[in-house]
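REQUEST FORM: STRUCTURE PREDICTION
Request ID: SP-0412
Submitted by: Lab K.M.
Chain count: 1
Length (residues): 108
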Amino acid sequence: MNQTRPRFDVPMAILVGLPRESEDVCRAVLDYAAFHIESVETEAAAVERIPAVMPHIVVVPLGAALDEISERTRAVGAELVELPPNLGKDAVRKILKSAWESAFKRAR
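STATUS: Completed
RESULT:
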């Protein structure tokens, strides 16, 4: 029997294969917004974790292979963020804030 899994009230994000500097900035921004954060190194790991975690946001480096990640992200109603390299904290905060606002509007 297929059954829709409920989404937890805790904001969730998955960071996929980000360079260390970008991951640190994303973690700082998302921690401040009370997100639970998981990091994975590869697209394959992300494809496995997205249906299990049901994140609100999935963050990948700009130019990453997105076919399966995009499909899984859409399936759970999450926002996919392609993060350009070498952005400052303020720019990352604006991008992620826009993503979580969109994700939460969709979840209502």
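NOTES: The CA atoms of residues 47 and 105 lie 24 Å apart.
Reviewed by: T.R.
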